[in-house]
Fold this protein.
Amino acid sequence: MSNKFSDFLSSFGLMILGVFLLLVGSVTFSHATPARPLAAVAGIKMVASGTVPTIRLSESSGGDNVLPPSLPLHPEIPLATTNTPFEGGLSAAAAIVVDDKTNAPLFELNSAVPRPLASITKLMTALVLQGLPINWASTTVVEQDDIDPGSHSVSAGERFTLEDLWHVALVGSSNSAINALVRASGLSEEAFVTKMNSQVEEWRLRTLHFVEPTGLSPQNVGSASDVVRLLQRALQNDKIYSALQIGEYYAHPIGSKQARRVWSTDWLLNNWVPNNFDKENIVGKTGYIAESGYNFAVRLADDNHRAVRVVVLGTDSNTARFSEARDLAEWVLTHYRWPSDHGYLNLANDVE
């Protein structure tokens, strides 16, 4: 009898102890930190799309891609200060403006629609040339097959350094100079174009496609949203960047005493289309064939180091591509605040 009573007391004691531990656990967990809103804990990027700031999940957000609750949201993209639409008027068939640092789109018009690129093609040609083992101090004779009748900067039979042809090609957008450079690269045109298309595939610029290196073919196509990324790639190359910032270049045919002056086709750079951007803050590339209309891709920055890239495709005149790119950039710089701007944090908190 005493053994049974002892066993009972032991079992009853264990039960009491278990109840006590459950009570302690429930009290402890009731004081755990409450869950925070999704915007504060998930991998979220704040993006100003068009003229209205919105919040969306980043493409990389997934089941395990969640920040600890103690880490605050730190947006770095420009944010719209108003819902005021752009009222400058555009003849462009497609356009985009992005923040140069984050690639956040700040204005878009038909930006995903592929269009003929014309000489914006030369950005990709230049990038491929930069990836080849070229001796820029070497020389080549311009051949008749290199000559585009509409390109007057070089003539068949003239000898130039490849460095001179490089600048004539990018500053003056010379098709003849591009043809001579591609030939001098040692690759056939077919092999060269294959490299162009392989590169944009690697970069996932899926609307870009090329059939030749100058831009004369309307089958060289791409969307404004992919062109603005191509411009970013091109401007990361110092040799391309410095060439596109030259407003006036003098080429020297070997054996000739007469230098060949080449003007930049970028009329913002030479202020032939008036603008308030300093010359050192303007770097871009033009393009035109009948099928494309007037194209322009440019990086512009203000005195506060706020920079945007602008692409306009298919404007209706040579002047319009520059004035429309200028007006879009000025509108964005006026209607958006950057992280370094006064009042940005208040604006970011409102969005958050």
The chain has three domains: 1-32, 38-83, 94-337.
